[in-house]
Predict the structure.
Amino acid sequence: MRADYIRIYKSVHTWTGILTGMALFIAFYAGALTVFKEPIARWASPQHAVAMTPLESAPDLIARTLATRPDVAKGFTIHLQDAEHVPARMGWEVRDPHANDHDESSVRHYVARLDADGGVQIEQAQPSGLGNFIDVLHRVVGLPVDSDPNRWFMGVVASLYAIALVSGVIVLLPSLVKDFFALRVGKNLKRMWLDAHNVVGIISLPFHIVMALSSVVFAFHDGIYDLQDRLMYEGKLESVFQRAGGPAADAAPRDPSAMLPPDELLARARSLAPSFEPIALQYTQVTAPRAIVRIWGKDPAAISPRARGGFVAIDPYSGKVLSTDYMPGRQDAANLWVSSFFALHMASFGGVAVQWLYFVLGLAGAWLFYSGNLLWIETRRKRADRRTGELPAQRLDTRLMASATVGVCLGSVCGISLMMIAAKALSGRVADLDAWLKGVYYAAFFAGIAWSFLRGGAAAGVHLLWLAAALTLAIPATSALGALFPATGLWAHASPATLGVDATALAAGLGFAWMAVAARRRLARGDADSVWAPRTLASGA
């Protein structure tokens, strides 16, 4: 390929990367954590004060709850997991009809349980929103609300990200064979970082292509569905997802006590796919003629259409299987193709091994965008005069980009770690924990940015890495304090999932400490004419 074409694609790769790099760092770092959204939710949930109602008592629980609250017949869930983040056997949500469909703050959660005398107790629950908010940061590249405009912004970022991938591969093609596994370690740190950037980018290229394309689809999927509805379904797309049946306006309400018990419904589901592992029964319109129960679960040997798994739809009264279109292992070719698209983005296949692979690839992706910005900065660095040794004043744009890169990236890391600490420290002490968690995150995030611009990227990088190390190490420390001193109001769970959160945070905290030491060494021993030198030298003062 001609050299002038290579220069054009290199410029495209550089500027698309610069425009999106910091947003994508947040998306990938938060996305890596979102892979383990459920363990994080379990870790952040306090100990249960009341034992779970036995599953065999679920029919009585449903009947008594609906007698007290008939409106709950519209939709409720019977949970099968006896896990830290599941406060009761039966639960439902009430959403503000005027709120955004993606706004979790507009949802009120309720649970029901049987007391010792067989009566029903209904109370409002306050599940931890920690995992959900980390997921929001991932889905809308660090913006506070998962709204349509924010998703569209994410779609633009993802589109530029796809362009950066294509142009980067084209730039690397002429030297791909020679430089693929080249990692030249030495005094030329820029060359070493460029080699590492190229190797990580090429090895993880299929992963990044999937992330870029699927993110664009997720961002604009509402518009895609609207267009599909108009062109293919003549405005009747919604009816495709409804249960078939005749008019039911004059039909008598059905008696929920006649529904099959959960054990029988679960047996029907397992007969379809023996390796299917149910986690919840989602009942809808149980007093109506078209009542449905969706049995959600996962199958380690199959592809799940959603992050939480898939479901089989059954008539809760007759036990008739209504649909297996979204059941892992039972989907037809068309549905399996669509589910594969979701699964490849959400790691909802292959079990725990694939989840850990996506976790590592997510962190590697975050580093890829961070290193891309560093390479841009180093490329525009002014060097000292070889004859006089006089240090030049570095360009303003490079110093500002260095401060922004350090502040945004490390500010988000510190914010997420501090938010995880607050999820335990503030639980039961504030009225709206989720609002506090958002406030804590953005306070740390913007404080990191302000500190970086105040002290300069070089010095602030060391400070913020040490802060990230301290805050991340404090995550398992809260569990240790909860185990040793329960009177503090903290807690510790002993399940493998929650212990895994603590162990991962411990390893990450030590990793940040190592990076802080390396950054401090670079600050002390690196080239005096670098943007990463102490500020007084790098600015020419």
User: Anything to note?
Assistant: Strands lie at 75-79, 90-95, 107-114, 120-125, 277-284, 292-298, 310-314, 321-323. DSSP finds 17 helices and eight strands in the chain.
